[in-house]
Amino acid sequence: MENNQYLGTEKLGRLLGRFAVPCIFSLIISCLYNIVDQIFVGNGIGYLGNAATGVIFPITVVGWGMSLFFGDGAAAHLSVSLGRNETETIHKGVGNAALCSFLSGLVIIAVSYFGGDGLLRLIGATDANLAMAHDYGFIIYAMMPLAMVQNTLASIIRADGSPRYAMGAMLVGA
């Protein structure tokens, strides 16, 4: 938090490049994750495997959206609190955002688990891909709370003035 004074003094174009490029790069890498996953699943399992991952994808998008909700809200809170020099408020806001993101991930797990076949069929699962969707979903659901916290914290780290650090943290999974 001490090294972010340049946010109020640097030229807008330079700041935009400094923040936009790592963010865009992170989004491209994230999309490439999905593309490469689909290639490997399609080549290894076939079209039913691709269909199964497609069934689970909307659930992951809900998790991603919720983590962005908490992360971007906390990032705005962080920016305002930095301007006011309210360090204690920043710590509480970041902690609350991470906790809410993690708990939301647990709620998604519970809804997905207890919703079972009905939820998967509502999303588009068929008899042919339901078992594969269950198997793939089990893996995705297990890591959802941690992935949501990571996504939430990435927004907060960017708001703190470290977009490259946020990008690097995302690339560690590559």
Instruction: Count up the helices.
Output: 5
Number of distinct beta strands: 0
Mean pLDDT, all residues: 87
Rg, please? 19 Å
Q: Structural class given helices, strands, pairing?
A: mainly alpha
Can you tell me the overall shape? elongated
Give an overview of the whole structure.
The two termini are 27 Å apart. 84% of the residues lie in helices and 0% in strands. It has a domain at 47-161. With 174 residues, it is mostly helical. Helix 1 runs parallel beside helix 5 (163-171) and helix 2 packs parallel to helix 4.
Quick take:
The protein has helices at residues 12-44, 47-84, 87-123, 130-159, 163-171.
Fill in the keyword field for this structure.
elongated; mainly alpha
Task: Compile the SSE list and pairings.
Layout: H1 12-44, H2 47-84, H3 87-123, H4 130-159, H5 163-171
Helix pairs in contact: 1-2, 1-5, 2-3, 2-4, 3-4, 4-5
